[in-house]
Amino acid sequence: MRQEQIKNPTLHFSRDMGEIVTEKHVQYIFSVEKRKDDFISVAMEYLRMNGAYWGLTTLDLLGKLDAVDADEVVSWIMKCQHESGGFGGNIGHDPHILYTLSAVQVFALFNKLNVLDVEKVTNYIAGLQNEDGSFSGDEWGEVDTRFSYIAICCLSILHHLNKINVEKAVSYIVSCKNLDGGFGCTPGGESHAGQIFCCVGALAITGSLHHIDKDLLGWWLCERQVKAGGLNGRPEKLPDVCYSWWVLSSLIMIDRVHWISKEKLVKFILDCQDTENGGISDRPDDAVDVYHTFFGVAGLSLLEYPGLKAIDPAYALPVDVINRIFFG
User: Fold this and answer.
1) Among residues 196, 176, 178, 195, which one has the least CA distance to residue 186?
2) What number is the average pLDDT over the span 78-107?
3) pLDDT at 328
4) Which helix (H) or strand (E) holds 118?
5) How many other CB atoms are found less than 10 A from the CB of residue 44?
6) Distance (Å, rounded) from C-alpha 18 to C-alpha 291?
């Protein structure tokens, strides 16, 4: 069912683009984990599960995941699971499909999916599908195409896509397609690069990419590149490193990545590094965070930057992890 990663035409890297400061980024990620009581860590407490996925996947792409105590991480994640089967963003927080996917992805990174009660987790996800094929994020009922992607991605990783009505799920996603070729969060919603990734990723995993007008969507996505080389999420917005993932992965999945300047994008991402203390920011000279560090490194991985492991554009996990899940 899943789409194989499409290799980009060869990109020649030069020192003029800058260089990735791998060791600094590794040090930065470990420093973020050690911070427990400062304002930023307290403010971000509710999505620590997402932060774990961003940080740990970055370490894996940089070839440094072995430095992490996997058992300690697994033990903490299991304390975030609820009786419903879903996971919260931290211990004592309510379960949500967003954090459930991050938990499953981290288990996949460590090759620990066998620790999960798969029936329990997949029943929780399947129970969030609505009659029209859409998915709610939790028991309170918010609907968003992000949740459609998350459900499909998670169930695919756990080999339980058969627990949902895939045909209805695909039909709902297609109903969110706009005249410009993009996708919104609900039918009629504005096209946005983040939502486009979710919809394209879900359609790729279910073998349904034929529903996309690839030239029309490819045009909308390549128009996201600004003169500085970075990508934005919507017309007239500033570039942001995170769209190096949302836009680029979508372009790869629809085989239109050659429509942007990859050289300029590489330089933009590398210019957003804090070369002294590590981490990557949204734009050059802004404050770094683990979210943009992950998406910056993931974007460089999609661009086949030397020394980085390859990442799968649909599952947002290293290719070797996905190959292990599907090909043993």
Assistant:
1) 176
2) 97
3) 83
4) helix 118-126
5) 18
6) 21
